[in-house]
Design goal:
Belongs to the transferase hexapeptide repeat family. With 253 residues, the chain is of the alpha/beta class. It contains two helices and 24 strands.
Length: 253
């Protein structure tokens, strides 16, 4: 009899564990489905702007859900086919409810990408050129704290603002910071974690804090200092995604 009771108890415990495991899997699937639905329903597009009323929200542009802090939309222009990741902050003005005049304050060109958790703070004019890509947690601001009066807390002193301009085709790596007054030219690469201020010429690579030019394109000599890795081989014209997938599977085998 003890043996039978132990066998029954073991079988019952196993059945309970299987039932609990099934319930957990079902709950996990339900949560994932609900979150996927919320991400789709909560995304902001020109067709479905939700509560946000931007000065311009271009065709094909999408703000992923959940959004970060967004205010001053009437002075924010987003170009066509922009990708704005989750928890991205976009603000125009120092606080909501201000009248900032007739002109846009924050402008994104066509095809701009802002990675997850990035912040663009435009208390005065900030312009990001077309096809500029930002990795996650990039911080771009036209405002900086002042500390002129040593008798007052820094946070209570009136800040300084200067316009920021980022040219087309730039790449800003993860955690890059662009400070007030910065002017980046065309196709500038900003290394991860760099802190940029001042002028950066076209086709330059900057790194460090404060950021300094570490590589530049010379029309006669090419990149100086020379690149350490060969240029990627471009995909031949006419190759389809299906062919590329088949080639990748062939290489794996």
């Amino acid at each position: 009899m003890p043996t039978n009771r132990n066998t029954f108890s073991s079988a019952a415990s196993s059945a309970l564990r299987r039932a609990a495991s099934w319930r957990r899997r079902a709950l996990t699937r339900a949560v994932h489905r609900a979150w996927t639905w919320a991400q789709d329903a909560g995304a902001v597009t020109a067709e479905h702007p939700g509560r946000l009323r931007f000065r311009r929200l271009g065709a094909g542009t999408r703000l992923a859900f959940p959004q970060g802090t967004v205010f001053g939309e009437a002075w924010i222009e987003l170009g066509d086919h922009c990708i704005v990741g989750e928890q991205v902050t976009l603000t125009a003005g120092m606080m909501p409810g201000l009248d900032l005049g007739p002109d846009p304050i924050l402008t994104l060109g066509d095809g701009v990408v802002l990675g997850r958790g990035s912040h663009v703070i435009a208390d005065t004019r900030v312009t990001i050129g077309s096809d500029t890509y930002c990795g996650p947690y990039v911080y771009i601001t036209s405002t900086n704290h002042s500390y002129d009066d040593p008798r007052q807390p820094v946070g209570k002193q009136w800040p300084r603002t200067e316009p920021v301009e980022i040219g087309p085709g730039c790449w800003l790596g993860t955690g890059a910071v662009v400070l007030p007054g910065a002017r980046l030219g065309r196709n500038v690469v900003v290394a991860a974690g760099a802190v940029v201020r001042g002028e950066v010429p076209d086709c330059s690579v900057v790194a460090g804090a404060p950021a300094r030019i570490v590589r530049r394109w010379d029309p006669a000599a090419g990149w100086q200092p020379p690149l350490r890795t060969p240029a990627p081989v471009p995909i031949p014209e006419g190759v389809t995604p299906e062919q590329l997938l088949a080639l990748a599977e062939l290489e794996e085998n």
